[in-house]
Amino acid sequence: MSDEEHHFESSDAGASKTYPQQAGNIRKGGHIVIKQRPCKVVEVSTSKTGKHGHAKCHFVAIDIFTAKKLEDIVPSSHNCDVPHVNRVDYQLIDISEDGFVSLLTDSGGTKDDLKLPTDDALAALMKSGFEEGKDVVVSVMSSMGEEQICAVKEVGGGK
Fold it and tell me: Which family does it belong to (predicted)?
């Protein structure tokens, strides 16, 4: 054993953000990674095996954060990356002047690192419910190191 210190640079390979799944087993309504983006599959079509090998799966999917349409064609026997997608509900505590929201976690702490959603209808619903003193619950979707408010619901009446 030497007395030298070994310094290793840690790099995130993204291994825990996704898991492999065979392309032929991914169905409509499931999730897939296309062009490094987590997507929800809206259409799957499989071509027949040709004389040059594998049947191919054609995926049409919508990015879960930007709502952009993405497509990919993968041999059905190959593995695709499938993102881990989590959805958690939080109670809205405050909306700051700069557009950040303060959310109450289950453990009683606060989560202050999210902005109002880019969807104007969702943002308006959050603001109006908050201003009227209603209990507003937001659903936060997280996947591949990104988080975004994806749904809003009002619970109960005003003050």
Answer: Belongs to the eIF-5A family.
Enter the tokens of residue 108. 């009683």
Whole-angstrom Cα distance, residue 20 to residue 82? 6
Locate tokens 């990015």: which residue? 63
Q: Which of 58, 55, 59 is nearest to 29 (CA)?
A: 59
pTM listed for this prediction = 0.77
* CATH architecture of residue range(s) 17-83: Roll (2.30)
130 backbone dihedrals φ, ψ, rounded to 5°: -65, -45
Q: Where in the chain do CATH 2.30.30.30 domains reside? A: 17-83
Give the C-alpha distances (Å, rounded to integers) separating 7 from 10, 13, 15, 31, 92.
9, 18, 22, 37, 43
The CA dihedral of 109, 114, 118, 120, to the nearest 10 degrees, is: 30
Q: What class does CATH assign to 85-155?
A: mainly beta
Widest CA span of the chain, in angstroms?
70
Amino acid 9: pLDDT:
43
- Beta-bridge mates of residue 5: none
